[in-house]
Structures are given as C-alpha cells and as structure tokens.
Amino acid sequence: MFSGFAITGQSVAFFLISLFVIACGVLLLSLRKVMYMAMAIGGVFIGVAAVFLMLEAEFLAFIQVLLYAGAITIMLLFAIMLTRHDEVEMPQKLTAHPVWAAIGAAGLGFIVLWAVKFSGVKWPTPSAESPWQGEDNVKLIGESLFNQYVIPFELVSVVLIVALVGAITLAKKEEE
Amino acid sequence: MLSVEQFLTLAAILFCIGLYGALTKRNIIIVLVSIELMLNAANINLLTFARFGLVPAINGQVFTLFAMTIAAAELAVGLAILIALYRNRNTSDVRDQDLMKW
C-alpha cells in the first residue's frame, strides 16, 4: 500500500502514534463501561495532539492537550458522574440498525481511502524542510489572528460567552 | 519521509470510528464524544494541508483554532442539555429521548 516507503524515525513515530490513536478509538467502541470509554477518549485526544506535533503545529498541540485531554475529558467525567455513572452498555443484539451503521461507516471509509490512495489524485509532494523556516509558531499564529482574523476572533468570543450563559441557563434547576 | 496520504488515511479511519460510535452508541455522552472524534479527524486534515499543501500557510492552523473553540462551546451546551434531560426524564439513553419524535 505504501510503496517506496522509507523507514525513518519520523515514519516509525507516526505509525506508533496512529496505532495508539486507532487502538484507543476501537477501545471507545468496544468497552462496555461508560467510565472506561471516557478514559479511552482521553487517549485519543493525547494521540491526536502528538499528530499535531508531527504536523508542526506546536501551539495547537498544546491547546489540544489543555482543552481536549484536560478540560473536555474532565467535563465528560463530571457529566458521567452527575448522571448514571455505573451504567454498562448491554451487548447489542444484532438488529438492522448497528449493521446499517457499520455498513455506512465502512462504506464512507472505503470511498475516502479510495479517493486518497487509488483515484490517481496527485497530492503535493511534501517538502522536507519546514515552510515556516524555524519561525516561532505561536508568534505566527498570533500575528495572523490579530491582523487578518481579528473580526472572527472577536466573534468567537461572543459565541463563547453565549455558550457559557446558555449552558448555565440550561443546566440550572428551574424554580417551582 | 512523511507523506500527505498517511495523515489523510489516519484522519479517515478516525472519522469512521467516530461516525460508527455516533450512530450506534446508547449513552448520550458517548455520542457527543464520538462527534468530538469526528471533529478531531477534520482538524488533522486541516493541519495536514496547512503544512503539506500546495501553498503551505498558517491560515489552516488559525482555522483549526476556531474549529476547536466552536467544538468546545458545542460540547458545553450539549452537556448542559444532557443534564437537563437527565433531571427531567431520569435516563441518559438516546432511545428514550423521543419527545420530539414524530
């Protein structure tokens, strides 16, 4: 499949990381206890942060660890603890629904893999040296964010405050 | 030497895992998590083309930053809805949430 694939430290690291990510994803699907599923998703988030590092997005890798592996996983654990934390998913009976879901997901996967690999699309050959030539990733993102994207940045802050207030209003206990 | 295809393949596999989980899981929290998985796969694709694309640019990373922010806001609202649902109906099973089903 990967013809002419040279074994370098980078590619070995990539395969180990992707193996970890996919293993955690499969664990998420196969585990029965909701608590363990939340732990598996934490593993996926950390693995994706490592993939971000390989893509030379150091700032985003850091944000991924902070936001996803830290905040979101803990928030999920809180939500699980506040609802039914000892819940166990029963092994599913083989009805039509999960079969169709599996066929749909696998079909989409095959279409995408075919488009990536075998459709003859010429992907740009990656340059070995970084396109940013050792410039500080955080500085580049900051400059872009506060020059070119300053209006979307402000709009995102509005979205965040609306989401915060909305979440509190929704989760608040209604008065009798 | 890294190639574009391997990152796209990883993202596609991750997306399909998320899709299957979102379609079949019973617990609402796990469904939300599966959606986050799909968003993460999309983020990997964005960063791949920001680094290895025809015109490498920092814009892809900024876009990913926005996508992560919106995903976090979405998850916060989703969990708040989940808490409200659990309080009212005392279940966190998707199949029981059929109040708006036709």
Automatic annotation (TrEMBL), chain A:
It is found in: Cell membrane. It is an enzyme of class 7 (translocase). Keywords: Cell membrane, Membrane, NAD, Oxidoreductase, Quinone, Transmembrane, Transmembrane helix. Its EC number is 7.1.1.-. The chain crosses the membrane at residues 12-29, 36-55, 61-82, 94-116, 149-171. One of its GO terms (molecular function) is NADH dehydrogenase (quinone) (non-electrogenic) activity. It comes from the Bacteria. The keyword Cytoplasm does not apply. The keyword Transmembrane applies. It is a multi-pass membrane protein. It catalyses: a quinone + NADH + 5 H(+)(in) = a quinol + NAD(+) + 4 H(+)(out). Its main location: membrane. Belongs to the complex I subunit 6 family. NDH-1 shuttles electrons from NADH, via FMN and iron-sulfur (Fe-S) centers, to quinones in the respiratory chain. Couples the redox reaction to proton translocation (for every two electrons transferred, four hydrogen ions are translocated across the cytoplasmic membrane), and thus conserves the redox energy in a proton gradient. This is NADH-quinone oxidoreductase subunit J.
Automatic annotation (TrEMBL), chain B:
Its main location: membrane. It is found in: Cell membrane; Membrane. It catalyses: a quinone + NADH + 5 H(+)(in) = a quinol + NAD(+) + 4 H(+)(out). The keyword Iron-sulfur does not apply. The chain crosses the membrane at residues 6-23, 30-50, 62-86. Keywords: Cell membrane, Membrane, NAD, Oxidoreductase, Quinone, Translocase, Transmembrane, Transmembrane helix, Transport. Its EC number is 7.1.1.-. It is a multi-pass membrane protein. Pfam families: Oxidored_q2 (PF00420). GO terms for molecular function: NADH dehydrogenase (quinone) (non-electrogenic) activity. It is an enzyme of class 7 (translocase). Belongs to the complex I subunit 4L family. NDH-1 shuttles electrons from NADH, via FMN and iron-sulfur (Fe-S) centers, to quinones in the respiratory chain. The immediate electron acceptor for the enzyme in this species is believed to be a menaquinone. Couples the redox reaction to proton translocation (for every two electrons transferred, four hydrogen ions are translocated across the cytoplasmic membrane), and thus conserves the redox energy in a proton gradient. NCBIfam families: PRK05715.1-2 (NF004320), PRK05715.1-3 (NF004321), PRK05715.1-4 (NF004322), PRK05715.1-5 (NF004323). NDH-1 is composed of 14 different subunits. Subunits NuoA, H, J, K, L, M, N constitute the membrane sector of the complex. This is NADH-quinone oxidoreductase subunit K. It comes from Tumebacillus lacus.
